[in-house]
């Protein structure tokens, strides 16, 4: 049997046709760009997302596409959407995880509820960009008509599922990422948080487990994608939660590191213990949570290339990057250090920015680049160290992502030799299928 698996990532949609043995038979990709608006607003047009989706699906092998029996998907998140009764967007765009318009609302939640009390229910501090409660509070204070006109609020999985099937839902992982859910007990929408923030319970759909078959592909979307209508569609989920399943991680203590546009770490735990420096969110499987953190990754490397190395082609730059990593690995010395907050810090209530330290007239751009790469590891492994105080950890880290090169992998290995790094590919894509099979088997 063939599955169409769709990964709505940070900067592109990737589509694959996958068989029962989790082998990718055909794949295609199409990119989209964010809108960067005044006030630290990062949004994505639905039309751009759907255009990329259509291009990616139609780039697949037609013969195999005609044989697809199940559709499954994952998305980046947080990714707030406000929708009316018919499913149209009330606010015209998708609000992405890079959005920081709601910094002030973090203080408001602290004042109204208290950040510790909020964390003990939702699993995180009220970080702007870390979950969506602050964004909803921003709209309540600044554009209340958006909430008044909304029938349901969710993340991108809610929008995609509505477009595909005509049905409403929010998945188990994204419910915890909305920041109004009882994450620490894996309960339901928190009456305490909703009441204190004056947000109506009616605005949130029922919660479904990822991978559950729920609805079928409707004619309008089938025609757009060049597919048959009536194909079963599985409930989607967050990309990192899907990646854990794709890496074969389904037990407490297992670790996933994704090195892509952002660099992320997710550690599975059966102990829902919160901390001010990481997110606690649901995993795709009930009874397990994720200890999660993220920092700039490929976006930061792209920025460095554009600002400091744009006389090179990209291929030349990546060879240069490898050479500079090799120098560092050989000498073990770099006098330059970096704070990796080019896109802020989603684990901080304060607004953080990036900076280099230790620069002198003898410093080189290569040392500056290596210090950026090393700083990324400090965030990732700092979170792993915190998780080790909560949960006994495996010494194997599954690692994936488009930023990986053999030399970057060597850097990670040399900095933290206590862990064995195992390279895995196509994790969100394969994880979507693994979740669908998991649910079909009645687990």
Give the helix level as a range of percent. Answer: 25-40%
CATH superfamily of the largest domain: ATPase, nucleotide binding domain
Q: How large a portion of the residues is in β-strands, by DSSP E?
A: 15-25%
Give the end-to-end Cα distance, rounded to a whole number of Å: 20 Å
As laid out across the biggest beta sheet, the strand order is 17-18-16-15-21-22
So what's the CATH class of the largest domain? Answer: Alpha Beta
Radius of gyration over C-alpha positions, nearest whole angstrom: 21 Å
Category by helix and strand content: alpha/beta
Shape: globular
Overall pLDDT score: 94
Domain Carbohydrate kinase FGGY N-terminal: 2-246
Family: Belongs to the FGGY kinase family.
Organism: Variimorphobacter saccharofermentans
Keywords: Kinase, Transferase
Would you give an account of this structure?
With 443 residues, this protein is α/β, with parallel strands linked by helices. The protein folds into 2 domains: 2-243 and 428-440, Nucleotidyltransferase, domain 5 (2-Layer Sandwich); 296-423, Nucleotidyltransferase, domain 5 (2-Layer Sandwich). The chain is built from 16 helices and 22 strands. A 6-stranded mixed β-sheet has the order 17-18-16-15-21-22, with helices on both faces. The model has no long low-confidence stretch (mean pLDDT 94).
Would you spell out the secondary-structure blueprint of this structure?
Elements: E1 2-8, E2 12-19, E3 24-31, E4 35-37, E5 41-45, H1 46-58, H2 62-65, E6 68-75, E7 81-83, E8 93-95, H3 103-112, H4 115-122, H5 133-142, H6 144-149, E9 152-154, H7 156-165, E10 170-171, H8 172-177, H9 191-197, E11 207-208, E12 213-216, H10 219-225, E13 232-234, E14 237-238, H11 239-246, E15 255-259, E16 262-269, E17 279-282, E18 289-296, H12 298-308, H13 314-331, E19 337-339, E20 355-357, H14 365-388, E21 396-400, H15 406-415, E22 420-423, H16 427-440
């Amino acid at each position: 049997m063939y599955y169409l698996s769709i990964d709505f990532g940070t900067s592109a949609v990737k589509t694959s046709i996958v068989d029962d043995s989790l082998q990718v038979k055909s794949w295609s990709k199409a990119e989209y760009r964010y809108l960067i608006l005044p006030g630290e607003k990062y949004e994505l047009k639905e039309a751009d997302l759907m255009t990329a989706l259509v291009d990616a699906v139609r780039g697949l092998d037609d013969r195999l596409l005609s044989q697809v029996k199940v559709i499954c998907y994952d998305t980046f998140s947080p990714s707030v959407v406000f929708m009316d009764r018919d499913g149209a967007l009330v606010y015209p765009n998708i609000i992405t995880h890079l959005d920081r318009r709601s910094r002030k609302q973090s203080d408001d939640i602290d004042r109204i509820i208290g950040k510790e009390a909020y964390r003990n229910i939702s699993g995180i501090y009220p970080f702007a960009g870390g979950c969506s409660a602050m964004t909803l509070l921003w709209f309540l204070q600044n554009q209340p008509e958006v909430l008044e006109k909304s029938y349901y609020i969710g993340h991108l999985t809610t929008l995609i599922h509505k477009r595909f099937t005509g049905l409403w839902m929010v998945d188990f992982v994204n419910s915890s990422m909305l920041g109004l859910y009882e994450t620490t007990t894996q309960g339901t929408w928190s009456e305490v948080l909703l009441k204190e923030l004056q947000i109506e319970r009616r605005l949130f759909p029922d919660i479904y487990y990822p991978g559950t078959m729920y609805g079928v592909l409707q004619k309008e979307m089938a025609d757009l994608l060049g597919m048959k209508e009536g194909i079963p569609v599985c409930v989607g989920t967050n990309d990192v939660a899907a990646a854990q399943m794709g890496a074969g991680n389904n037990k407490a203590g297992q670790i996933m590191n994704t090195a892509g546009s952002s660099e992320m770490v997710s550690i599975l735990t059966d102990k829902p213990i919160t901390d001010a420096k990481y997110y606690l969110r649901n995993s795709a499987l009930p009874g397990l949570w994720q200890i999660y953190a993220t920092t700039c990754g490929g976006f930061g490397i792209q920025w460095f290339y554009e600002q400091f190395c744009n006389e090179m082609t990209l291929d030349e730059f990546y060879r240069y990057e490898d050479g500079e990593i090799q120098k560092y690995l050989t000498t073990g010395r770099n006098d330059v250090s970096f704070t990796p907050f080019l896109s802020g810090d989603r684990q901080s209530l304060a607004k953080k920015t990036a900076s280099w330290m230790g620069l002198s007239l003898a410093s080189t751009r290569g040392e500056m680049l290596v210090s950026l790469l090393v700083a990324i590891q400090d965030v990732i492994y700092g979170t792993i160290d915190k998780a080790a105080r909560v949960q006994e950890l495996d010494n194997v880290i599954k690692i994936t992502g488009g930023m990986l090169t053999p030399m970057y992998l060597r850097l990670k290995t040399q900095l933290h030799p206590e862990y064995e790094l195992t390279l895995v590919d196509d994790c969100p894509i394969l994880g979507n299928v693994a979740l669908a099979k998991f649910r079909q088997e009645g687990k």
